[in-house]
Structures are given as C-alpha cells and as structure tokens.
Amino acid sequence: MLFRSLLTLLPFVGLAFSQSASTFTDPTSGFQFTGITDPVHEVTYGFTFPPLATSGAQSTEFIGEIVAPVASKWIGIALGGAMAGDLLLVAWANGNQIVSSTRWATGYVQPTAYTGTATLTTLPETTINATHWHWVFRCQGCTQWNNGNGIDVTSEGVIAWAFSNVAVDDPSDPQSTFSEHTDFGFFGIDYSTAHTSNYQNYLAGNGGTPTTSPTGPSHTTTTTTTTTGPTVSATPYDYIIVGAGPGGIIAADRISQAGKKVLLLERGGPSTQETGGNYVAPWATSSGLTKFDIPGLFESLFTDSNPFWWCKDITVFAGCLVGGGTSVNGALYWYPNDGDFSTNVGWPQSWTNHAPYTSMLESRLPSTDHPSTDGQRYLEQSFNLVSQLLSGQGYRQITINDSPDSKDHVFGYSAFDFLNGKRGGPVATYLQTALPRPNFTFKTNVMVSNVVRNGSQILGVQTNDSTLGPNGFIPVTAKGRVILSGGAFGTSRILYQSGIGPTDMLQTVQSNPSAPALPPQAQWINLPVGMNAQDNPSINLVFTHPSIDAYDNWADVWSDPRPADAAQYLASQSGVFAGASPKLNFWRAYGGSDGFTRYAQGTVRPGAASTNSSLPFNATQMFTITVYLSTGIQSRGRIGIDAAGRGTVLTNPWLVNAEDKTVLLQALHDVVSNLPSVANLTMITPDVTQTLEEYVDLYDPATMNSNHWVSTTTIGSSASNAVVDQNVKVFGTNNLFIVDAGIVPHLPTGNPQGVIMSAAEQAAAKILALAGGP
Ligand SMILES: Cc1cc2nc3c(=O)[nH]c(=O)nc-3n(C[C@H](O)[C@H](O)[C@H](O)COP(=O)(O)OP(=O)(O)OC[C@H]3O[C@@H](n4cnc5c(N)ncnc54)[C@H](O)[C@@H]3O)c2cc1C
Ligand SMILES: *[C@@H]1O[C@H](CO)[C@@H](O)[C@H](O)[C@H]1NC(C)=O
Ligand SMILES: *[C@@H]1O[C@H](CO)[C@@H](O)[C@H](O)[C@H]1NC(C)=O
Ligand SMILES: *[C@@H]1O[C@H](CO)[C@@H](O)[C@H](O)[C@H]1NC(C)=O
Ligand SMILES: *[C@@H]1O[C@H](CO)[C@@H](O)[C@H](O)[C@H]1NC(C)=O
Ligand SMILES: *[C@@H]1O[C@H](CO)[C@@H](O)[C@H](O)[C@H]1NC(C)=O
Ligand SMILES: *[C@@H]1O[C@H](CO)[C@@H](O)[C@H](O)[C@H]1NC(C)=O
Ligand SMILES: CC(=O)N[C@H]1CO[C@H](CO)[C@@H](O)[C@@H]1O
Q: What does the similarity note say (predicted)?
C-alpha cells in the first residue's frame, strides 16, 4: 500500500514531464479541452474552465475528462502536480459505471477521502465500451482546497497523473483502497488559456460544432512545430555548442577566446542573480540573491513546490537552467587526481597528462573548504563527531584539495566551488569572461532537438526558435562544428533524434509522432549511446547525537530561516547560509576479490532526507553519512528514452556487480565499526531491528541514485565500444563533438564536476588543435 515510487521519485528524482498541454476537441462530445494524451498508456486527460471569475458559484470548478483504454484499472489526477498536499481525483470503470472520488494524501501513502467540499458529477457524455472508458465530469469546489492552497487558473501549473494496471481492492466502493500506481507522469498546463465561453453549453450537454479538427493533442503538436514562424536568414557560426552546463560553458569560453565565432544555446532560463535570475527567498529580497546563489538554500531545491529548474522530460534529477547541474548541485568540488585520468579507467593515453588542464581549472575556479566570507566554519557538530569515529578507524585529516591523490583513509572539511559566500562554478567564472566577447553569442530558452546532417557532415542544429533561423535551423560555417554539451541524458536524446545511437532507440524516436523526423535509415549511425552508464550507488546512514544541531532538517531555510543566520548572511555572505549542507568528506580504498581496487566516499551532513526507525528518536539531533562507491566500481547500466521521448534509466547501474555490493557493505560496516566509542551516538536508520545487509537489500534503487551520471557517450578507441574518439569527435561524423559528463569513461573518485570541468578544458584544447576546423 505504500506509494513508494512517488515517495522515491518525487522528492529524490524530481518532476518528470515531457509534455505540455495543448488544446483539442473531444470527437464524441465536441467539448474543447486543454490536456495531453500520454503516449505510453494512451490515456487522454483534458480540462476546461468557465470564464475567469474571482468569485461566484462557478469560480472554483471545471469540466474534465479521462479517456482510458480498458487496461487502465484506475487513473489518478493530482491537481497540484504532487501527490501530497493537493486535491487528488481517482476513477475507474466498474461494469458500465464510472466510480470516482476526491482524495487527499498527507504523504506518500494511501490517499484517503478528501474532507473539504468538492463535488464530482459524472456528466452524460461519459461512455464505456469494449476498448475504453471515457469519463466526462464536473468538479466543483476543486480549484481551492481546504489546506488553503489551490490551482491558479490565471497562470501556468503542473498536473500529475497516476496509472495502474492493477484493479482497486473493491471496485464498487468509491473509497476503495488500492496498491500504488504502476506508472505516473506530469505535464505542464497553461490554465490561463484553458477557459471556455461555452462552459454553460457544455454543462447543458451541448458541445456545439467543433471548430478545430478532431485530432488528439499529440497530433496537434506534431503539425504545429514544423510549419510556423517567420522565415529569417540564419547567421552561420564556427561552433554551435548545445547546453550551458559546465561542459558547454567551459568549451564556449575557451573556443571563443581562441577567436572563433561561437553560439551557445541553452534550453533553460536564468539561474543566479548575475544571469538575470530572480527566484529570491522572501527573506533575501533586499539582496536579490536567488535560490541558486545562496549556498544554504541547497536543500530547499528538493522541497520546493515549484521546482522549475529540473528538466521536466528527464526522469532523474537534471538541471535545465543556465549552469545546468552546477546551478543546482551541492557544489562539492574535488580537484581531479592522476587516477581519475588514467588508462586504467578507460582514458586514451593522450588524455593522461591532465595536470595542465586541471591547473587551468584551478586558477579559474579555486575550491574552498571554508566558504563563509569571514573564514569561520559553521554548524560543524557532525564534522566533530565523525572525525572522532574516523580517527578511531585509522583515518587522518587532510585539506582534501591540497593532495588530490590522497584518497585512502583520509577525511577533511568538505570543499566547494563557492566564491565569495555564493554559488560560483562555471557560471560565475568562465561564462562571465565569454559574455563580453563580440564573437560569442549566448541564447537561453532555446531547445535543440537534433543536429541536421547529410551523412557524416553536420550542417547545423534544429532549434525551436524561428527567430534564429528559418524554421529554427541554425547552420554552421563550411568548416564549422557542433559540440553537444547537454549532459548525459540531454546529449543522448539529441543524438537519438539525429539518427545516432542503438537501433532500438532510433526506432523509438521513429514511432513517436511528436519527435523530429530522422534522417533516412541508410544514414543511421549505430553507436553505443546510453550504454556503459555509471552512477555512484549511495546509501544513507542516519544517526542521532545530543551534540548535533540538525538545523531543523533545512525545512525552514527558504521561508522562515533562523533570523540571526539570515541577517548575518545578508550583511556579509557569512555564516551558516554561506555553506551547503555537507560538512565532512572521507575516502577509503578497498581491494576487491576480483582484483579491482574500489574507493568508498563518505559525505556527512546535518539533517536527513528520510528515516525509518522503529524506536523513538530526537529529530533535532539527526545527521546523515552518505556512503558512495566510486572509482573501481564495475557495475554499469543503460540510459535512453522512453516512448514519450523522456530521458530515462533503461537498466539500473547500481550494484549490478556482486563484488561492488560486497565492497559497499564492507565500507558501511567499517564506518559504524566503532560507534560505541562515541558516547550517545545512535544509528537510527537502519536501526537495531535491521542488519546493514537487510537495509541495503531493501534499499530502493531510485534512491541509490547520486545524479553523477557518466560514460553514456564514452570516449574510447572504436565505434564498437565508444561514442567519441580521443578528440571527442563522434565516430562516423566529420564535425560533431561531445563535451560533457557523458565522455568520462569511468566514475571519478569524488563527486564528478571537478573531473568534468578539467576534461572540458582538455577537450576544448583538443578540438581547437584538430585540423580541418574553422
Ligand atoms: C541534484 C544534483 C546534485 C549534484 N551534486 C553534485 C555535487 O555536489 N558535486 C559534483 O561534483 N557534482 C554534483 N552533481 C553532478 C554534476 O552537477 C553533474 O555531473 C554536471 O553538472 C554534469 O555536467 P554536464 O555539462 O555534463 O551537464 P549538465 O550540467 O546537465 O548541463 C547540461 C545543460 O544542457 C542543457 N541542455 C540539455 N539538453 C539541451 C537541448 N536539447 N537544447 C538546449 N540545451 C540543452 C541543460 O538545460 C543544461 O543546462 C549533482 C547533480 C545533481 C542533479
Ligand atoms: C470506444 O470509446 C472510445 C473513447 O471514447 C472511442 O474512441 C472509440 O471509438 C469507441 N469505440 C467504439 C467501437 O465505439
Ligand atoms: C523552446 O523551448 C524552450 C525550452 O522548453 C522554451 O523555454 C521556449 O519557450 C521554446 N521556444 C519557443 C519559441 O517555443
Ligand atoms: C550531401 O553530401 C553529398 C556527398 O557527400 C553531396 O553530393 C550532396 O550534395 C550533399 N547534400 C546536401 C543537401 O548538402
Ligand atoms: C531533542 O533535542 C533537543 C536539542 O538537543 C533538546 O532541546 C530536546 O529536549 C530533545 N527532546 C527530547 C524529547 O529529548
Ligand atoms: C550521554 O547521555 C547521558 C544521559 O543520557 C549524559 O549524562 C552524558 O553526558 C552524555 N554524554 C555525552 C558525551 O554527550
Ligand atoms: C523500515 O525498517 C523495517 C525494519 O526495521 C523494515 O522491515 C521496513 O521494510 C522498512 N521500511 C522501508 C520503507 O524501508
Ligand atoms: C573573429 C573574432 O571576432 N574574434 C575575436 C573573438 O574575441 C577575442 C577576444 O575578445 C578576440 O581576440 C578575437 O579577435
């Protein structure tokens, strides 16, 4: 009965919607709705609202419909886009009737009857036949809920749907219990355009004459995307770089510095204040510093009700905004070590001399392990406790980035790429030097669907912005090049949509009516795009100790921070808010029985993302040790796209290899081997009722995700086992390159951004040096 997938996928994996609602006319009722057809289950969701009114009997109602193949045993709609804390509608067919109810969930548990005033009425347009149930309903009192929230019918929102192919426990009972949904998804909807002046007619059963052709919403999208827009002449560029994450920004800065004419395209919008971002906490308005600037707001990225920064068409966390992952990550930052770029982990020999590039990175973007501008460290109780534990296990304390090659039995203060008490990263450094160059152009809110090619020659990129070129096509110059830096999931999808990748993925694109047209099959390039995926498996251990200040589990940092800490930060970018949640990191090397040396990393922070304890504990005293397995790990998985075109994990990469699991368990046992040596230190998750083995066995794979995807378009020696060659050029193409996490052949020893950025420096140098370019 636990809603585990939403439990795990919503808070940890982020919103995932590939679709935006569009207008369509239901062919049987003639009603015009705004909604989507989910292409996987082929369920249509539609909504239409009465003319806008702020008061009056109809101001909080709408008419909706669900058209569902009979395989849909029940369908749920979450009007606020999340399972907990918004009005849920649940319906199914029982014989020749629709059974429906309004529900509410306070957490990721079985929703129960909604206790507010909302009325569902099944309208006469409802039909059930051999293939579908088609529920048309009126929902009164449904846009304002009894917790004070609601949907704003004048602006944009997110709706979540839940699907199950397992029948409810008692189909005749509207409040029947049921097992968790077997799938779910999200879509964006612009409520302001979903009102109809025909509302009274609809209620009276009069759909009128449909004024638009009676096609489903997904088909409407297909026909509009390719034909609209004024014809403009496009400017050709020497280099078009897709994606302003760390890979794309560093490549764009170095290549424009070299005098090339560079266009950087980013699908998302502004992030930090410096980029024009304005998502400012209520307490920080005087500063204008955004959620992405203030390090102490990091944890609030995962609890916000409007997380516009996550890519809505990728089913794991990915940042879709200026800076990509580096604008929303924990900013843990490790200078690469020699092992990170060795041939042992798959780098070509030509890449092993990383030192010049790593030092270019360090001079542009130095790390700090004391991010507060006053040089002090704050909220260090968990550091003090865990350093006692680790000292008892033979660890020594070091300044981690002073000796990047020391990664065995060492711990130190967490290091970050914060600058001046704010998020730094490539956005505050490399992007700022590129922007003033006359030969550098940066466009945000531009989505690249594919590269346009003639066989192996890339002609340019297809965007959704017809002001940049005819129908959105932007060409490269005669010798020009395209660099993909869309991140592991983003770049893979662009490749598939360009006819480059495993045949099954290209066929998935081919069968999606809203995907761009592929090149002819004779021009498909079969490369292992999405294969070899790695991500660190990570396991959280949660403890309590009387000395810990769990900082209210970071729950209040956005709306109700501790006043003194907020004031201190605003005055001088110092104090608790100048740092993110991590306080200590440690590493230990393990020899495996298979001959591989694996590294375990630990990250320690006050608070906990989730706990499961059968004994009472004091939540104000919680802290977490996350244990990751990194370099040396042998498990690999596969990423790709689903039928709806969403970037997704096809085969989980975590603990597939038995020795990986053995070593990770050994590392967990070691971390807690001397708990009794620290008085009053208690492990609460797992608690005394569960062994570490049981805990790991029950661990939901989706929460083992560390968002550290690498190797999905790996560098290597041939097209049979790699996607790019040693110059990061895509095999089988003349002028297509990749500079992002995907080229990294193996997980680095620490969180990956340091290695990705050093690799971007090196890749830019190799691209510039490669003959034949502009
Ligand atoms: C929640 C979270 C926490 C993390 N914490 C850490 C950490 O503390 N330390 C660390 O080292 N690493 C961390 N990481 C990982 C790190 O941020 C990523 O490894 C890194 O950002 C990957 O860089 P990238 O250049 O490959 O891609 P990304 O950072 O993903 O950037 C890709 C960019 O391309 C854009 N894009 C994608 N597709 C298109 C398209 N079709 N058209 C136009 N633009 C497109 C995206 O919007 C995005 O801006 C974290 C990641 C996440 C998600
Ligand atoms: C069954 O209902 C669906 C949904 O309303 C409709 O599309 C389909 O045409 C109907 N089938 C028949 C045979 O009437
Ligand atoms: C292109 O896509 C981006 C990202 O989804 C979006 O923000 C932008 O509005 C789109 N542009 C157009 C012209 O539709
Ligand atoms: C595609 O390439 C071929 C040969 O490489 C060339 O003959 C042809 O003109 C090209 N077509 C276009 C549209 O550029
Ligand atoms: C929980 O911990 C806080 C802070 O250490 C303390 O003030 C409080 O009394 C504790 N509560 C209980 C029930 O022990
Ligand atoms: C441990 O807790 C006991 C009471 O529960 C207290 O007397 C003692 O001081 C605590 N020790 C430490 C080191 O916190
Ligand atoms: C919580 O822990 C208990 C054992 O203590 C275990 O049986 C149960 O499955 C765990 N629950 C979850 C959601 O992991
Ligand atoms: C072609 C061109 O305009 N190149 C310029 C790009 O920007 C750099 C740095 O400002 C100049 O040195 C180049 O001349």
A: Belongs to the GMC oxidoreductase family.
More confident: 607 or 199: 607
**Is the CB of 261 within 6 Å of ligand 8?**
yes
Confidence label for 229 from pLDDT (cuts 50, 70 and 90): very low
Enter the tokens of residue 586.
């440690």
> What are residue 770's phi and psi, to 5 degrees?
-75, 125
* Separation CA 743–CA 756 (nearest Å): 9
Q: What is the pTM of this model?
A: 0.79
Detail the DSSP E strand segments found in 506-596: 538-544, 584-591
Q: Evaluate whether 126 touches 137 at the Cβ level (below 8 Å).
A: yes
Q: Please give the mean pLDDT across all residues of the chain.
A: 92
Query: Which ligand lies nearest to the CA atom of residue 523 in the structure?
Result: 4
Find residue 48's DSSP bridge partners: 63
pLDDT class for 607, splitting at 50, 70, 90?
A: very high
pLDDT > 60? residue 5: no
Question: What are the residues whose beta carbons fall under 8 Å from the beta carbon of 186, sequence distance 6 or more?
Answer: 15, 16, 17, 81, 158, 159, 160, 161, 312
Residue nearest to ligand 5 atom 9, measured at CA: 618
- Interior/surface letters 138-173, b for 16+ CB within 10 angstroms, e for the rest: bbebbbbbeeeebbebeeebbbbbbbbeeebeebee
Maximal C-alpha separation, the chain: 79
pLDDT at 373 over 50: yes
Rounded to the nearest whole angstrom, what is the distance from the C-alpha of residue 169 to the centroid of ligand 7? 24
Q: Whose CA is nearest to atom 13 of ligand 7?
A: 612
Report angle CA 601, 243, 6 to the nearest 5 degrees. Answer: 55
Q: Is 437 in the pocket of ligand 8 (CB under 6 A)?
A: yes
Q: Which of 132, 134, 545, 708 is catalytic?
A: 708
Residue 14, pLDDT > 80, answer: no
Please give the pLDDT value at position 371.
98
Residue of 541, 612, 617, 694 to mutate, ligand 7, most atoms within 8 A of C-beta: 612
Give the model confidence (pLDDT) of 739-761 as tens digits: 999 999 999 999 999 999 999 99
Decide if 370 is catalytic. no
Ligand number nearest to the C-alpha of 384? 6
